[in-house]
UniProtKB/TrEMBL annotation:
Record-given protein name: Transposase
Keyword tRNA processing among record annotations: no
Lineage summary: Bacteria, Bacillati, Cyanobacteriota, Cyanophyceae, Nostocales
All residue ranges annotated as the Probable transposase IS891/IS1136/IS1341 domain in the record: 199-304
Example GO molecular function: metal ion binding
Organism encoding this protein: Atlanticothrix silvestris CENA357
NCBIfam families listed in its UniProt record: guided_TnpB, IS200/IS605 family accessory protein TnpB-like domain
Keyword set includes rRNA processing: no
Domain Cas12f1-like TNB: 316-381
Record-level GO BP terms: DNA recombination; transposition
Any matching Pfam family: OrfB_IS605
Domain called Transposase putative helix-turn-helix: residue spans: 1-44
Transmembrane segments annotated in the record for this chain: none
Keywords: DNA recombination, DNA-binding, Metal-binding, Transposition, Zinc
Amino acid sequence: MILTYCYRIKPSAHQITLMSNTLELLRRHWNYALGQRLDALNRSRCQIDRCSIVSEPIGEIPERINYYTQQADLKQTKILFPDYKNIWAESQQVNLQRLNKAWERWLIPDAHGRRGGRPRFKKPGELRSFVYPRVNCPKAGAYLQLDNRLKLSKIGEMPVIMHRPLPEGFVLKTCTIVCKADGWYCCISMQDNSVPQLLPLDEVESAVGLDVGLKEFLTTSDGDTVAIPQIYRQTQHHLARQQRKLARQKKGSRRQAKKKNHIARIHQKIERQRKNFHYKTAHKLVKNFDLIGVEDLNIKGLARTRLSKSILDAAWGAFINILEAVAVKRGVRVVKVNPHSTSQNCSGCGHKVLKTLSVRLHDCPKCGLLMDRDENAAVNILNRAISEVGLILPVRGGLGVALPVKREAFLEFDGSQLSFSKLEAPVIPQG
Ligand SMILES: [Zn+2]
């Protein structure tokens, strides 16, 4: 399992200058390397049905550009621009690896045939993090010491605020230094050899279906609701006022920079409040149920409608990711089901009862079932989830309201039988 913990660091003014300088140099190098790749691509391809004077290689055919050629060029970069000697060499390599990843994501489709967008040139200040790919090992660039100090090569030693201890039994892997609106952070990723075990199906005692919505954040199949906090909506007038103030500042001035940072901090607060709410809700659900059924929503599609601001403010997608991460740690199953007509079908008899969004009550003319619209949908989702995993349980009332049972979260296994890479190693977001 891989975890990432983020801690605030307290660099000195001189160290901040060094780190900002590192980010700026890496940004320029990113732009150069991206330009080199795009140029090589443009010069060596031509549309299939024409002979182009723009795209055809003239003279010598440019050599193939890939990660390895670019990494080999780093030596030359350091000779031409001695400033690059002040950056840890591995950080520069990771910077190129990141570009290579984005590049391949753009050109090579994944299993679903989807590709990412074209990697972009970065404006000043857009590159906000750099990586030390080795921590606390021989030849590492970063050392997290026991006295809560972080030692970074080429930058120096600085205090770390360890607001929570590192988990035991994990090996520290990488250290990413991030510049956020409210200061600098180090994100430590670590790994151990445990593989979270899902609860066996015959031990599943309680299950629940969740219907997410805009009236209530979610409705469970038991009829409980969680109110929607609408964090962005509460702050948007304040935010708009600050943005108007920013527009009045002189470009490039000190005050403009200050105002920009103020606005960035407002956004950061919104993000943190939302994340906090998501984690609390997820923990509450995972504590009480062994199996959770959710809709597999197309958030991008939904966010193109008129309700986009509310949908993005609720951030169901982020919530479901967090729910899955929290559930994996406890062995709880999260089952994603097809959301097609879950709110229209009757959960009692399966009859399709068409209703618009404003109709809040489900009233089945066939079997006479009368219940809240969202609850009906949640029951449908629960039924689908149960049939998907092949659990044979009475639809309603059959599942006892079992008290949460304390159990071992992970089972250790010895690596002799199975290599770690063959097993799922879920990446769990910090928090
Ligand atoms: Zn019915």
